[in-house]
Each structure stands twice: as structure tokens, then as C-alpha cells.
Specification:
single chain, 13 helices, 9 strands, globular
């Protein structure tokens, strides 16, 4: 008996990406996992991106090409997912690279573990910066402190529906962080493949190089998750910051306020430090 493997919809929002777009598409087409639907969403590009997409769509029937007016990566990604028919979703930015066994290994984890709903991997930089991307491994404490899951992670389409997709109220290029926290709030478990299978391109105008991070916004939209895990967060560096202020007599609201002040101070200090120095 032949068992059909789940369909994976790869979602690629595109805006003026002609320089690296073909390389990104090739990395998707070269996947060892073949049951793919590749949705290219042209978000109002004014360069040669349209022609590149159309050329590839005539070569491979798995490619679906969509055009829309420019609205930004959040609306483009969400729109692409509304057109997807796959059980699993993998977003890929139009200048990044996935290695040829990434989807196969990610699907294998998801199929064998029903409780896991986010699968990602280790990663490295390409482009303006090269080398290993030293992201902390996922733990609930690490993800609450800062985003440690890049956007190109496999998840279930039903989970995307359940949380209402990527939110457009996140204006600082951290919509993926907000999305992962929404899934985790719903009980979704996370797994990182212990292998470098993703290449993140650094460019002068990359979204990550321009983003201004606002931790207060993230905490405000995910108060329940932070409240449920506040004791874990109060350990370590946060405990040192708060010193003896936190005890059983302090209300939860006061502790949440202290938590937000801590993150605001930490981010302020990081922004003042020379590049490459962390605290």
C-alpha cells in the first residue's frame, strides 16, 4: 500500500527580489521532498521579479504564481497561505536558501510527533555576513526573552487558521515572533533539527537590519504566556536586575510591570552598545 506524504505549501513573498530570486526558487525545487506546492506572491514588484516567476511557473507545475498590489510582507505571506492547499506551510523569504533535505527532515519530525507544530533547524549567514547563526536553542524562557525561531520554519496550516495568521499590528518586522508566541500559547510544541539546513541572507536593506525591536508590544499581546511563565523568567539575569524586589507579597501586575521595565532597559542598553557586543 502506497502512503501519500503530506502536501507542503512553500510560501514565497516577493518584492523587487530579482537579484536572488532564482537562487531561492532553485533551492526549493531541489528539495528531496517532492510533494510540494510552491506559491510565489509578487507583492507589486517593479523590477524583473515577475518575469523570473513566470519563467519558473512554466517549467514546474508545482509552482503557483500570484500577483497582488503592494501591501508588505505580512499581507503577502497571509494572502499566499489563504491560497495554499497543503497540510503544512513553510515560509521562505525571496533571498534565502533552504538546503535540499530541510523539508523532508522537518516533515518527518512533524508526522512522527503529533504534538509538535513548529519545526526549524540550525542556520548560517550568507551574503554580507557569513558563518554560523548562533541562535539560542528553543526553550520557553529563551523564546520569551527574544525570538530564537526564524521565519522559515514548518508549521501546520490549521494552526495558522486557529491564531488568525500573521498579525499586521506588528510594525517592527517581528510578525514571525508574534506568530510563534501565538502558536505556543495554544500549546504547540517546538523542535529544532540539530543540523544547518537554512541559509539566511544578510543585505544592507534586509528587514532584520532595519527592524526596531519593541519588546513592550510583544509582552502586551502575549500577557497570558508571560504571566504563566513569570517565575521562570524571574530567574537568572532578570532576578539579578530585580534583586530583592520580587517576593510573594508583590502582586502579579507589579511583577509584569517589572518584567516590561527590565526588557525596555535591556533593549535600550543593547542599542547603545558598540555593534557585536551583547549583554
Amino acid at each position: 500500500m502506497i502512503v501519500m506524504r503530506p502536501l507542503v505549501s512553500v510560501i514565497v513573498p516577493i518584492y523587487n527580489s530579482e537579484k536572488f530570486l532564482a537562487e531561492t526558487i532553485e533551492s526549493i525545487l531541489n528539495q528531496s521532498y517532492r510533494n510540494l506546492e510552491i506559491i510565489l506572491i509578487n507583492d507589486g514588484s517593479t523590477d524583473n521579479s515577475k518575469q523570473i516567476c513566470k519563467e519558473y511557473s512554466t517549467k514546474d507545475k508545482r509552482i503557483v504564481y500570484i500577483e497582488k498590489e503592494n501591501g508588505g510582507v505580512v499581507t503577502a505571506r497571509n494572502y499566499g497561505i489563504t491560497k495554499a492547499t497543503g497540510e503544512y506551510i513553510l515560509p521562505v523569504d525571496s533571498d534565502d536558501i533552504i538546503k535540499n533535505t530541510y523539508i523532508e527532515k522537518a516533515v518527518d519530525v512533524m508526522v512522527k510527533n503529533e504534538n509538535i507544530g513548529i519545526v526549524y533547524c540550525k542556520a548560517e549567514f550568507i551574503g554580507g555576513k557569513t558563518g554560523y547563526w548562533d541562535l539560542p536553542e528553543f526553550t520557553i524562557v529563551n523564546i520569551l526573552k527574544d525570538n530564537c525561531i526564524f521565519v522559515t520554519a514548518l508549521f501546520k496550516r490549521t494552526d495558522w487558521v486557529n491564531v488568525g495568521g500573521y498579525k499586521d499590528y506588528v510594525k517592527d518586522s517581528t510578525e514571525d515572533y508574534d506568530f510563534w508566541l501565538s502558536l505556543i500559547e495554544n500549546g504547540v510544541k517546538v523542535y529544532r533539527i540539530p543540523e544547518i539546513l537554512f541559509q539566511y541572507r544578510i543585505r544592507e536593506n534586509s528587514r532584520s537590519t532595519k527592524a526596531k525591536y519593541n519588546k513592550r508590544v510583544i509582552i502586551n499581546y502575549h500577557k497570558r504566556l508571560y504571566k504563566e511563565n513569570i517565575r521562570l523568567l524571574e530567574r537568572g539575569d532578570l532576578k539579578k536586575y530585580l534583586k530583592n524586589e520580587l517576593n510573594e507579597k508583590i502582586t502579579l501586575a507589579k511583577r509584569m510591570k517589572c518584567l516590561m521595565l527590565y526588557f525596555a532597559l535591556r533593549i535600550h542598553l543593547i542599542n547603545k552598545l558598540p555593534q557585536g557586543i551583547d549583554i
